[in-house]
Specification:
The protein has helices at residues 9-22, 59-66, 154-163, and strands at 35-43, 49-51, 54-55, 69-72, 75-79, 84-89, 94-102, 109-114, 119-121, 128-132, 138-145, 148-152, 165-166, 174-179, 182-188. With 194 residues, it is of the alpha+beta class. A six-stranded mixed β-sheet has the order 3-2-1-6-5-4. α1 packs across α2 (59-66). The longest helix is centred in the first third of the chain and has 14 residues, at 9-22. The radius of gyration is 19 Å and the shape is elongated. The protein starts with 8 loop residues before the first helix and ends in a 6-residue tail after the last strand.
């Protein structure tokens, strides 16, 4: 990569700060800049952002970068109107660290709060899904925006399980959770501990 192609971190920060001033996320879905290469930035499974092997210790800077994060297929990029740079993401780019619940039953709404300050009400546009790792342990996620997900942390998932019930999928034998009028299946009923 030549110097002319070297990604400009200052430009990434400026683009994110400009969006922050408006109080809205930048329209990255409209930006299709040229790819400028990969930078040494990684988001670890626990939600910690690293640059050149060092954790980014300023939460406001992490929040800024999170607003210009874009996913294309299995790859992740930071984008501005002028450039796009690749970064590594170990699992999901965000972590859902807390949740709030209003209502009950089908009227219940579960709103997640991520490590970067997003508030995400689970529902038709922000689905909850549960995978299982090789040991059978659950790995729950919630869709945040534009193909970006948050790994739901353990304490929040335990709270979801406490709220869980059988739903319309009970005929097929599922235990899960209602949010915004949608039932999200977590686990087959026959796998629940007696």
């Amino acid at each position: 990569m030549t110097d002319a192609q070297t990604p400009n971190t200052d430009q990434l920060v400026r683009a994110a700060k400009a969006a922050e001033k408006t109080g809205r996320l930048p329209p990255i879905h409209l930006w299709n800049p040229p790819f400028c290469g990969d930078i040494d930035m990684e988001i670890r499974r626990d939600g910690t952002w690293f640059h050149e092997g060092t954790p980014i210790g300023r939460p406001a800077l992490v929040r800024l970068f999170s607003t210009i994060l874009k996913r294309e297929g299995a790859r992740y990029f930071l984008v501005t109107p002028a450039e796009k740079v690749g970064i590594r993401v170990e699992d999901a780019p965000f972590v859902a660290q807390d949740l709030e619940v209003t209502g009950k039953g089908r009227s219940q709404i579960v709103t997640f709060v991520t490590n970067v300050g997003d508030r995400v009400p689970a529902g038709p546009d922000c689905a909850i899904r549960v995978e299982h790792d090789a040991s059978g342990a659950p790995r729950p996620y919630v869709h945040v925006r534009a193909g970006l997900e948050a790994l739901i942390d353990r304490k929040s998932f335990y709270r979801l399980v406490d709220l869980g019930q059988t739903g319309p999928e009970a005929e097929q034998g599922w235990f899960g959770l209602w949010s915004s009028g949608v039932f999200f299946p977590f686990l087959p009923l026959d796998e629940l501990a007696p």
